[in-house]
Amino acid sequence: MTSNIASRSASFRPAAAKRVQALARSLGARDVLVLTLSGLSPTASVYITGSAVLHMAGTGAAMALLLGGSVVVLASLLYAELGAAFPRAGGVYPGITAVLGPGPGLVVVTLGLITAPATLAFAASGLADYLRVLAPVLPRLPLAFGALGSAALLCTLNIRTSAWVTAAFLAAEMGALLVLTCAAGLHPARGLGEVLAHPMMLGPQHRLAPTPNWTLMLATLSGAYACAGSGLAIYFSEDMRGPPRRIGGMVAWIGLITAVIVIVPLVLLTTGIADLKPILAAEAPISAYLTVTFGYPIAYATSLVVALAILNNIIASMLAFSRFLYATGRDGAWPRPISAWLSKLHERFGSPWLASLALALTAGVLCLVGERGLLVLLSGEVFTATLVAASVLVGRQRHLTGTSSFRSPLFPLLPLLGFMIVAAFFSADWHDRTAGRPSLLLLAGVAMLAAAYHYVFRRRRN
C-alpha cells in the first residue's frame, strides 16, 4: 500500500528533479492562521462581497450568510482530511494525485496555473478600482502593477518576515470589522427573528419588498463564497513546525473562524440599519451605513483599511501560490529546466522567489484582460472541489485518508454534500451567460485537454 501511494505521488518526478532544496519549517500554528486569514481577507469579504449580498437580497443577507457559511464550514472538513493525509506545499494536488492518480492530479495542476495568477490579477485590479473611488486621479494599471510588485518583493523575503507584515495588516483589518460590528450591535433597529422570518429587499421603483426564495438561494451561494478558502492553509504545510498532519485540524478551525468573522458583523448589520431604502440603494451600503452612524471621516478611514486588506490578500495569496509552483517544479511536472527554475529557493531567505516572480509577471499581464475576462478565467472553477470530494470518498474506502490526525465526520454524507455544493455553484454559473457559462466551458475544456494529455502522451511514454 505504501509503495503504491509513493509511486503515485512521485509520478511527475524525473530523476533530475528530485534533489532540490526543502522549505524551512519556521512557522508556528499562529503564523499559519495569520497567513491564511490574510489570504482569505475577511474584511474584504465583509465590505465588498457583503455589500454585493446586501444589494442582492437586502436583509435576506442574514439568512444567506448563515446558510452559506454553515455549508462552507462543513465542506472545509473535506479539505482538512485530504490536507492532513497529504500535507504538502502543492495544496490539494498531491492528495488528489495519490488517491485518484496522476491524471486528475495533472488536471488540478493545470487549472491552478490559470486560476492562481488570475486570482492575483483580479485582486490587484480590484484594489486599483477601489483606490480610484477614493482618489479618482490615481492611474489604474500602475496601481495594480505596483501592488503585484510589492507583494512579489515581500514574498522573496523570509516567510517569517512576511508573516509579521501580514499580521500587522490583519490587525488593522480586524479593527475595521470591530468598528462595523460595534456600530451595528449597539444600535439595533429590528430583531434577528424578524430579519430571518421576513427578509426584505429593495424592489422595483426603490420600494421594499419580500426577498424571493430564488434570490435567497443565489445570495446563499455568494455568502458561501465569502466564507470559503480555508484550504489555503495546506500550502503552508511544509513551512510549519511540528507534525505536518496538524494542518488538517488547522484547516477545520480556520474554516469556522472565518465564517464567524464574516457572518457576525453582516448579520448584525441587517438588524442595525434603521432606514433600509437609502442604505440598500447606495453603491457601497456598508460605507453608507458607517457614514450615517459615525460620519464621513470614520467611513473614509475604514475604506482605506479595506484597500489595505486587499493588498494583504495579494501578499498572502502570492506566498501560498508560489509554494504551489515550487511544488510542481520539485515534483518534475515540467521539462527539466522549467522544473529546476520553479523549485529554486533564495540562497539567503529560503523563499521560492522565482516562482513568486513568475506569478507577479503573469498576473500583471492578466490585469490587461479586464474584469470580465478574469471572471471567465475564475468563476467556473468547480472541478478541483469536485476532485477533493471524490478523493475523500475514495481515499477513505482505500484507507488512504481519514487514518491520520484528522478524520472528517459524517462519512459518506460529507463528500456527497460536497458534490451538492459543486452542483449548486455549477448551476449558478451556467445561468450566468456573461461570465459563468463561458468560464465553465473554458475550464472544462482545459481540464479535458490536461486529462487527454496524460492518458495519451504520458501513458504512452511510460
Task: Name the overall outline.
Answer: globular
The proportion of residues in beta strands is under 5%
The CATH superfamily is: Amino acid/polyamine transporter I
**Widest β-sheet, arrangement of strands:** 1-2
- Total tally of structural domains: 1
So, CATH architecture? Up-down Bundle
Query: Total number of helical segments?
Result: 20
Span between N and C termini? 21 Å
* CATH topology-level fold name: Amino acid/polyamine transporter I
Q: Give helix % range.
A: over 70%
Order of helices and strands: HHHHHHHHHEEHHHHHHHHHHH
Stretches with pLDDT under 50, minimum 5 residues = 1-10
User: If you compute it from the alpha carbons, what radius of gyration comes out, rounded to the nearest whole angstrom?
Assistant: 22 Å
The averaged pLDDT comes out at 90
